[in-house]
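USER: For my understanding, would you kindly supply a protein sequence with its structure tokens?

ASSISTANT:
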Amino acid sequence: MTASADEAARLAALDRYHIVDTAPEPAFDALTRLAACICTAPMAALSLVEGDRQWFKSKLGLPFDETPRSISFCAHTILRPALLVVADTLNDERFAENPLVTDGPQIRAYAGAPLVTQHGQRLGALSVMDNVPRALDGEQRALLRILADEAMRQLDLRRAVHDASQPVRNRLELILNAAGEGICGLDETGRVIFINPAATHMLGYGSEALSGENFHLLVHHSCADGSPYPGARCSLTTVLRPGQTRKAGDDVFCRKDGTPLPVGYVSTPMVDADQPAGAVIAFHDVTDERRTERALRDSVRRLRLIIDAVPSSIAYGDSSQRYRFNNRACETRFGLARNEIRGRHVREMLGDSAFESVRRHQETVLRGREVSFESRAASRTGGDARHTSTSLIPDISAQGRVQGYIALVNDITARVRVEQDLERFFNVPLHLMCVAGTDGYFKRLNPAFEALLGYSEQELLIRPFLHFVHPRDRHATIEELGRISAGAATKQFENRYRCRDGSYRWLSWATFPVVDEGLVYAMALEITDRKRATLKRRARTRDAGDGAGLRDCD
């Protein structure tokens, strides 16, 4: 099949899902939020790619509902069955000049898993995005793929429900022409006086075989478990006496071959001169509905497995701040079983002190606003106090009422301790330490730079670092930066940096590049006095010492 034929088939498959330009749905929004949570990303989307645009069925952190296909990241994702990961969009020629990168949301990192049908057609993608260059670890990639597969299952399930309901709607429109649902008319004694082809097809009888027969005794004589169903209790024919409509959504008729037929039905009395004259039974096969219900239960089970596999503590609190749902990580956090957490108040679980410290955030989310914060509190299970990062997401009904909220809690104690250790190390005053970019700018500097060169940190950050390098050293510095950008670490490189007073200081550099992030971690020693002494010794040994060596110190 040609590429154009493949694309036509893909677009036809997308049309069959009847999903584009529909309203947001909780099932898809939950997957989008879960993807963002798992990948710790500020932006996420479930997108579907049409002929000339990509449209978001669900989104988080994005200000628009669609984009032209020409600038869509997902248009690239659907070209391959595997995950598409772009750690730094500025270093990828496909996206470096994309307006979604240079403007708008300023996407610097992207990861997307295609939504693949059973026939291999890729309709769109579940993706996460960040404003800073980064990559996903192996677990995050695997979970993103699982979530994309679950999104596809939800699309298939939605389509199945849509397709199953379409025949029902058609049958209702064709009732007068005896097409659609099984329709059977009974006289006042419960005998069949009319039955349509749909009913005879489902029951396996011909219309002649049913005409005049007692409907209950023929097709409704047994319960679902096979036990006898007394006619006196038959809800189909009891409408003949009080003249009230009866409905059942889960009953069983018996086919001619003896096999059960799961049905739902409505039995409506026919009234003549205020007296019951019979009944009309409209019934349908609910086999597909039961299959769909089983699929929904399986889907809920899979989602439970996925949520339990997430290392973040996830819980749902109602509007009265009582827990109604939690995952396994939440059980570990509190040291309690699931049934011991459910129904308990947040204050009871956190303790008075910790609850008061986050109370304003609880009140904010119950007003309908999402909130994120970091906090430190004593561990409920004992041990040192723990640092946590928490996001509270309101659950707002279609009527705009806050029904509760989702709490996503990550233990960031290890990260905080590492950051504190790094901060202490970074601010050691004996060495100049920095983080620079391969774009030629400093990203972070320790106070030693300001103390040595006399410039403020802001002055050093807003200009390319070559601006401060001695003109005679710039060429060598550019060459060394090229080697570093290619992944080579520097053990020793010397150049001169200009001070605010116009003088220059010799610095000896050691660097370690992180190529994927476009960053260079560097440390420098100030060696001006040592350099001057070395050049003086060299000058004294020259036959024609004209002082050039000393001038090179400046």
In short: The chain has a mean pLDDT of 86. The longest strand covers residues 260-272.
